[in-house]
Design goal:
Blueprint lengths: L4 E2 L5 E8 L10 E7 L4 H8 L8 H4 L11 E6 L5 E11 L5 E11 L4 H5 L24 E2 L6 H8 L16 H4 L3 H19 L8 E5 L2 H14 L2 H4 L4 E2 L16 E4 L10 H7 E5 L18 H10 L5 H32 L21 H7 L13 E8 L16 H20 E2 L2 E2 L3 E8 L3 E3 L11 E2 H6 L3 E10 L5 E10 L11 H18 L7 E6 L9 H8 L2 E2 L2 E2 L1 E7 L7 E2 L11 H8 L5 H9 L11 E5 L1 H11 L11
Parallel strand pairs: 8-10, 8-11, 9-10, 12-15, 12-20, 20-23, 23-25
Antiparallel strand pairs: 1-7, 2-3, 2-6, 4-5, 4-9, 5-6, 13-14, 15-16, 15-17, 18-19, 21-22, 24-25
Helix pairs in contact: 6-7, 6-10, 9-15, 10-11, 11-12, 11-18, 13-19, 15-16
Amino acid sequence: MSGSGRSVGAGHQFYVTHCVRADSVRRESGYSVRAASTTASGLLDEASHYPPYELPFDMWRDLPEPGAAPRRLARTVGERGGVWVAHSAYLAKDSVGRDRSYFSHLILLPVVSPATVLRSWGAPEWTVRYSSGEPKTLPAPELPDDDLVCDASLTAFLGDRPPWPTSPSVDVCPLRLRVLPASSRRDLLARALHAVQLLAAEKPGSRKRLFIHAEPGVVALLLYGCVRLLPPEMTEDLTFSTFEPYHRDIRNYRLARVVGTYLGPNGGSLELELGAKQGITLDTFTRGRSSTELSWIMPAGLSGLVDVAVNGHWEGLAEARKALAEARDEGDDWIQQEVARARAELQANPALADAPDSDPLLPKSAGGPAPAIRRAVGSYDAQISRANPACLLFLIDQSGSMGDPFIGAGGTSKASTVADAVNRLLQNVVLRSAKADGVRDYFRVGVIGYGTTVKAGLGGATPSNVLIPVSRLGEHPLRVDTRVKKVLDAQGRVTEQKVKFPVWYDPISGGQTAMCEALGVAGQAVKEFVYEFPNSYPPIVLNLTDGLPSDGNPQEAARAIRNISTADGNVLLFNLLISKVPVTPAYFPADESGFPETEAKLLFRMSSALPPKLWAAARNEGHAVKPGARGVVLNADPTAIVRFLDIGTRVSPGGNRPL
């Protein structure tokens, strides 16, 4: 296919670069339209205002050769209708000899598909320079076509003999990916497919975008795989750019739903905040910086699509798409039912965790897929050590209503009651980690408060540096208060005793309840922990709130957190609802049917099931827990908060024994 043109109806083309006055179509010096196939003023305006190209910041100082600098290929929607196809290339010098310039070849077409645009990647027919004195009038355009991005190159990328590296500016399989096993490249395509799935599921008008950190050629090939394999309704209007400079406020780039970026040959990684607030992130350099939704097992059905491309059996695509649709309709509910059943079996009989799938002693109710899934839900028995610490992350509602008096707390605010309980637990964690040589880092601990803002409550910044080694916690409390504690003396009389009370977290109240944003930040922080400690006891996230979120439905963000896993099991998300009226707390229910359709059911659905050993701990504390019990306490009073934190954090150094 190389060298041929693809006609896509009537259109116009433009060359935009640095011009001296005499060479500009509009006789303008600076970056302007150098040549065009139309003199329409509005179209010339739109072309000249197309976003400029810049080198990645890490390449700016080195003045690379044009063949080493990233190329941009974009498909965006025109202000006056039509589709812009933009190809931008780096130039070492501008028209007056200054360093670092660029040349954009823009084509405006009435309609053109994403796949057709992507097949033009790397085509030699893209103009990348235009000499002074050349004509200012261009013919009607033909969209270039090449074979760097096509069905055959996608199949090769996924196989054992991926495409050889070419010019770094257009390479679709750089050496860093070529040396990986084929399974890793297939997994990368599956995650790209799921990312575009998630993007397509956003409501119309959503400002969310997909950010992909990779070489632009890799972005082009992955996107081609997505538009080629996914159902057309998901991708037919997809807008994208294979490269935009990360340092130029990429968060606010609005021309495309998919935004590729490249930080330079040294790699680097995306900021966690990008995925927590701005959309979905797929970081091909640092997997731990990808969005939470892309960090676990991919949804059923995607593997069938990948297999079509691996084998080059495109005639089976319709059947694979049908299987994907059926998996979306039925698979998720079926899996959740099996996981729930497996967890209930483990809670009732923890010894089943070690039983082989064929064990005749397994109860008949455990037939079907539940035995295999029983291992997937995790054993939750990893030994806690400095090499594999535990993670405790508290999400604390700091909305205005938390300043109200806590029922049954003698006028103390809900915020103060929660702060006291959290500080006591933190002190206990520090004491349990203390040895003769000092406080050992058996734990990473963090607090995320959400109210007027979402922020780290123990220092650091969100979403990075949320989790703090426990040794630093022990060395640096905010202050140490002196409090009065009532005790019994030797004669059995009640007396008052002064005690030291270290404070790490102060009560705060004000603003709304930004729970969804807080869960997003928590997911990124936990994912970073799991990336660093993949064999650790699964992180425990505890969310304490007194009401409904003000920033949307948190169930998807909660599900994403629960889907993160270590080798020992999935992350545990527990929730506590602070009581607004004096009613009996509901500890660790297994069924939501008795709760009203408000905060209670929402938090129940967000919560993880109790692992067998925590389930047993709750039962030993006198709670009437049933199989399937979830880590949620509803209508909590001050005592319930203490019990919730106690049972929900029952892991300790040397194992996962109670604190």
